């Protein structure tokens, strides 16, 4: 027993030493050297405010419609929203809460060495990206929140409490000061968010539940997330070019710890965050808004983008081990998908009804 505790403690120390090695000056110099490249290839992915959509463009606007027009538009919105299944409503809440937890995300980027916005108004390309990205992200929670409020399908007080709890409780951040690790995480996460919103748009739209307004909102948010994904994928791709050994090891480090949604600590006030998050993941899997298959496909996509399998020059022994791990991981995840399906078929588990307070305690069917 004592031996296992000592071994675990050594693993923790080794992990800390691994990511802290990325704070060495020669590693961080890479980030300083590519700042002109960020100016040229990343900042243009932000849209000028004047060219950006705003929540009022996607929802009834009393100033534009007048009192009677606004009332009629809201009644139509509520009529369409009434046809959206409860499972998708729960997924929509989780998507919205993820967006409303925005204060945690720029603070995470501002932990990263070199790229952080040290004064809140730095003129570096890195700092301007962080602020511009945050400004674009800020609209996402706003538009989803307003839709939910107007639709009448949600207990908004319970939803708002969930947002407050999540921001209070925070998120798990691995290697919190390393840009290599941070950008690997955000590239993955932005693609995951784009997929979740895109899937939701498809499922609630004309070919699904028939709520065209909500489909347009989710699709518009997904398009933003795709642009942001492109930015972080480019940044990480540049790091793979500049220091492939560091980049592939950082990516493997993050994947070994699993890329969880930022809502991993989501809490409805009744259950522990871990229990509730597991239930939400099961609901999202069943509804089709975000699945284990999506997770695998994101990994495969990023590996193709960064040409992980093709890396040869510049890899240390640890780098080659990281490369081997990453190249084998999609197959392992695929086997997990197949085994989970086989277990469910053999076990013939009966679903459990879980009341969800976001939708006035209406029960959702979840397979444990």
TrEMBL record:
What is an annotated GO biological process for this record, any one? fatty acid biosynthetic process
Keywords from the named record:
Chloroplast, Fatty acid biosynthesis, Fatty acid metabolism, Iron, Lipid biosynthesis, Lipid metabolism, Metal-binding, Oxidoreductase, Plastid, Transit peptide
Say if the entry is tagged with keyword Metal-binding: yes
Give the location in the cell: Plastid, Chloroplast
User: Per UniProt, where does Fe cation 2 bind?
Assistant: 137, 190, 225, 228
Describe how the cofactor binds.
Binds 2 iron ions per subunit.
Tree of life domain: Eukaryota
Which Pfam families does the record cross-reference, listed alphabetically?
A: FA_desaturase_2
Specify which residues bind Fe cation 1 according to the UniProt entry for this protein.
99, 137, 140, 225
Q: Name one GO cellular component term.
A: chloroplast stroma
Query: Quaternary structure?
Result: Homodimer.
PANTHER family the UniProt entry points to:
ACYL- ACYL-CARRIER-PROTEIN DESATURASE-RELATED, ACYL-[ACYL-CARRIER-PROTEIN] DESATURASE 6, CHLOROPLASTIC
What family does the entry list?
Belongs to the fatty acid desaturase type 2 family.
Q: What is the name of the protein in this document?
A: Acyl-[acyl-carrier-protein] desaturase 6, chloroplastic-like isoform X1
Q: What is the species listed in this Swiss-Prot or TrEMBL entry?
A: Panicum miliaceum (Proso millet)
């Amino acid at each position: 027993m004592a031996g296992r505790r000592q071994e675990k403690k050594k693993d923790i120390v080794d992990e800390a030493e691994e990511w802290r090695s990325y704070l060495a000056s020669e590693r961080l110099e890479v980030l300083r050297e590519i700042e002109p490249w960020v100016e040229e290839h990343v900042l243009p992915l932000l849209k000028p405010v004047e060219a950006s959509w705003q929540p009022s463009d996607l929802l009834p606007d009393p100033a534009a419609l007048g009192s009677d027009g606004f009332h009629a538009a809201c009644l139509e919105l509520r009529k369409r929203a009434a046809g959206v299944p409860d499972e998708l409503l729960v997924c929509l809440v989780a998507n919205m809460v993820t967006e409303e937890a925005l204060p945690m995300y720029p603070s995470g980027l501002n932990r990263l060495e070199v790229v952080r916005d040290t004064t809140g108004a730095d003129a570096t390309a890195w700092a301007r990206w962080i602020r511009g990205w945050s400004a674009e992200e800020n609209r996402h929670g706003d538009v989803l929140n307003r839709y939910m409020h107007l639709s009448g399908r949600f207990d908004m007080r319970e939803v708002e409490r969930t947002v407050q709890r999540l921001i209070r409780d925070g998120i798990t951040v691995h290697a919190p000061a390393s840009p290599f690790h941070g950008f690997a995480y955000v590239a993955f996460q932005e693609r995951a968010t784009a997929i979740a919103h895109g899937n939701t748009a498809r499922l609630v739209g004309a070919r699904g539940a028939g709520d065209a307004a909500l489909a347009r909102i989710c699709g518009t948010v997904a398009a933003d997330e795709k642009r942001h994904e492109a930015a972080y994928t480019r940044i990480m791709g540049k790091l793979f070019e500049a220091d492939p050994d560091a980049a592939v090891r950082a990516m493997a480090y993050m994947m070994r710890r699993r890329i969880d949604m930022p809502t991993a600590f989501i809490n409805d006030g009744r259950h522990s965050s871990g229990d509730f998050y597991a239930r939400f993941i099961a609901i999202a899997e069943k509804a089709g808004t975000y699945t284990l298959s999506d997770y695998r496909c994101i990994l495969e996509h990023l590996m193709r983008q960064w040409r992980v399998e093709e890396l040869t020059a510049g890899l240390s022994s640890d780098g080659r081990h990281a490369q081997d791990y990453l190249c084998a991981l999609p197959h392992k995840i695929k086997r997990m998908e197949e085994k989970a399906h086989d277990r469910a078929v053999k076990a013939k588990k009966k679903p459990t009804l879980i009341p969800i307070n976001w939708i006035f305690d209406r029960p959702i069917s979840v397979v444990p």
